[in-house]
């Protein structure tokens, strides 16, 4: 009985989702009748020019879904996103073929009748995610669009296929600086992968591009003074990755990479809870990166500006992370333990929430300064 009840509940949820999509589609069509069609086509054409191909936005899903820049030109395209494309019985077989790279089946299905861009795109992202290069190539040549979310699916592919897949997209108009929604680019997501980082930089990736800080325009360009790539490399990447970005022109003044390197915590740790104790390996592991940043001009007392409440100074961030060795290193480089951030100074926070060792280090530093 429980199984039947669960099946009934799932059936009702799917039906409700279908009704919701129908309402949204009707609302969108009504908006087009009030002048939205021209705006949608203009945004689609702009994106198409960036991709090197025309991508008219005729029936994209509204309300900021991941699919709202996929051209939907057929009356049944919306069903592809409900999980129950009843009007397109070949879709399940098509998905499986794209996921497993079964080119014969893909060719057979596409040869039966014309398929819409939305149909093709759903197969393309499966082929990209599974590393099926031949299938992805065939779908692109058949007209599958490259949307703002398409390239990110490659990050799920087998490691040895990723560069080949990105190269395939470049043959169809995509570039390493092509933005996703709100201007987000892929470089900050791949800086911990040395091979991909080398390929992206060799293919013109700009290390100063990043997602819009204010999310001002879903279809807009990236910010050109971002530090997202360098900050991510500083907190999770290698010394070599940081140097590669700096050599490619990454500007430290765009952000605060030293601050982020100083505050790396163990996965899942909450620095606000106090007594965070990273392993010695994790604690020491960021120091070479911090040294690299300082050698290239980073200020150990730089104040990190943000709209959110944060420790603001590298040494306060390091204390909150429980990173004793990083705190010692920052002090050796002239960091001021009495600079007050939103959570107080390094000395104050250590007194309230730090370990006994952290308290001793900062107490000794204060005594030495007073002496």
From TrEMBL:
Show the InterPro entries listed in the entry: Ankyrin_rpt (IPR002110), Ankyrin_rpt-contain_sf (IPR036770), Multifunctional_regulatory (IPR050745)
Q: Which UniProt keywords apply?
A: ANK repeat, Repeat
Q: What is this protein called?
A: Uncharacterized protein
Give the originating organism: Cylindrodendrum hubeiense
């Amino acid at each position: 009985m429980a199984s039947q009840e669960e099946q009934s509940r799932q059936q009702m949820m799917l039906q409700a989702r279908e009704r919701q999509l129908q309402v949204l589609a009707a609302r969108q069509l009504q908006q087009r009748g009030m002048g939205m069609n021209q705006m949608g086509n203009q945004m689609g054409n702009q994106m198409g020019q960036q991709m090197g191909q025309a991508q008219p936005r005729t029936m994209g899903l509204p309300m900021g879904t991941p699919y709202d820049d996929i051209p939907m030109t057929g009356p049944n395209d919306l069903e592809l996103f409900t999980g129950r494309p009843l009007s397109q019985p070949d879709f399940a077989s098509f998905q499986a073929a794209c996921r497993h790279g079964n080119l014969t089946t893909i060719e057979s299905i596409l040869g039966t009748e014309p398929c819409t861009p939305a149909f093709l795109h759903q197969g393309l992202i499966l082929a990209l995610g599974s590393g099926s290069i031949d299938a992805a190539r065939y779908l692109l040549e058949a007209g599958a669009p490259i949307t703002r979310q398409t390239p990110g699916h490659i990050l799920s592919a087998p490691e040895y296929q990723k560069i080949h897949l990105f190269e395939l997209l470049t043959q169809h108009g995509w570039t390493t600086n092509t933005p996703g929604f709100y201007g987000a680019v892929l470089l900050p997501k791949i800086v911990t992968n040395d091979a991909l980082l080398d390929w992206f930089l060799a293919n013109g990736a700009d290390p100063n591009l990043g997602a819009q800080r204010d999310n001002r325009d879903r279809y807009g360009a990236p910010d050109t003074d971002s530090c997202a790539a360098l900050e991510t490399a500083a907190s999770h990447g290698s010394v070599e990755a940081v140097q590669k970005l700096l050599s490619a022109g990454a500007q430290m003044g765009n952000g605060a990479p030293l601050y982020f390197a100083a505050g790396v915590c163990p996965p899942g740790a909450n620095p606000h809870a106090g007594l965070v104790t990273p392993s010695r390996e994790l604690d020491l592991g960021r120091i070479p990166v911090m040294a690299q940043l300082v050698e290239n001009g980073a200020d150990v007392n730089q104040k990190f500006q943000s709209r959110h409440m944060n420790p603001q100074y590298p040494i306060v961030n390091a204390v909150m992370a429980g990173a004793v060795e990083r705190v010692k290193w920052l002090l050796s480089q002239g960091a001021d333990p009495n600079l007050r951030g939103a959570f107080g100074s390094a000395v104050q926070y250590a007194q309230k929430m730090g370990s006994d060792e952290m308290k001793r280090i900062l107490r000794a530093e204060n005594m030495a300064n007073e002496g």
